[in-house]
């Protein structure tokens, strides 16, 4: 009898651990294969817990614009660096560092809407919860400045800076790596090895550049669905989830302008591009790994400097 029980338990374990996850992966692969795309499960190469979106903290661009028009009591607080704020910002917004908002007690009487470029939201969510505990009413502008611009609303400042709104540095991409709601479109030719560099929490699709820029209506519908819900076909009536962003990357970050124009013509929004592509991100990860090593291993001098007689060499042990 004990032997039979052990056999049954082993069968149940095999079914739960191996078969069920396999169904999910197979379904995703079948969905993307039908559209000429390929979904690749990313490896868990990053430390830290996955950060789930708190969509209750989001407020849409349309809602904010309507409230401003109706004269509602709200304040747009741009939390970016002062230099970035001076270059470009929403009319009527104020520039206050995120950590300093809690010291502005006069803001407790209004609805505070936090604004940044639109890609980063993990740190905004954390601060929102802290501020709410201190009796502030706070929301995050879904899509940030990028969404504000995409909806056709006015921005003040250097309009050449608008082009940089949807360009994301490797450092920012790394900081947001554990956040859900990331959809990654990989145009890199090295699709078989790229997944190890990408966070597990992201939904990741590989597609050739030619397929992406195709004028075929079926491909366009599929692409629009991927950008909206992370699947090749969204449920009927689905209109997107707050804090969902699309990141496009390729080998070296070149040729983004044509891709950006393609998305714009088809009204696909909340799309960002990784600066320098996968090449720059790999270098960032290498430097990050190097910075965590002991100082004696980090020292590396190319050639001699001044009166230096010896050259320090990076340890390869």
Characterization of this structure:
There is one protein chain. The chain has 317 residues and is α/β, with parallel strands linked by helices. The longest helix is centred in the N-terminal third of the chain and has 33 residues, at 2-34. The N and C termini lie far apart (55 Å). Residues 13-48 and 309-317 have low confidence and may be disordered. The strands form 3 sheets. It has a 6-stranded mixed beta sheet with strand order 1-11-10-12-13-9. A 5-stranded parallel beta sheet has the order 2-7-6-3-5. Strands 4-8 form a two-stranded antiparallel ribbon. It has helices at residues 2-34, 61-69, 82-87, 122-133, 144-150, 170-175, 191-194, 209-212, 217-229, 256-265, 277-291, 295-298, and strands at residues 38-39, 58-59, 74-78, 88-89, 94-95, 111-115, 137-141, 156-157, 167-168, 182-186, 203-206, 245-249, 271-274. Strand 10, helix 7 (191-194) and strand 11 (203-206) form a beta-alpha-beta unit. The protein has 2 domains: 33-50 and 178-284, Oxidized Rhodanese, domain 1; 55-165, Rhodanese-like domain (Oxidized Rhodanese, domain 1, 3-Layer(aba) Sandwich), CATH 3.40.250.10. It is globular and about 55 Å long.
Please give the structural blueprint.
Blueprint: H1 2-34, E1 38-39, E2 58-59, H2 61-69, E3 74-78, H3 82-87, E4 88-89, E5 94-95, E6 111-115, H4 122-133, E7 137-141, H5 144-150, E8 156-157, E9 167-168, H6 170-175, E10 182-186, H7 191-194, E11 203-206, H8 209-212, H9 217-229, E12 245-249, H10 256-265, E13 271-274, H11 277-291, H12 295-298
Parallel strand pairs: 2-7, 3-5, 3-6, 6-7, 9-13, 10-11, 10-12, 12-13
Antiparallel strand pairs: 1-11, 4-8
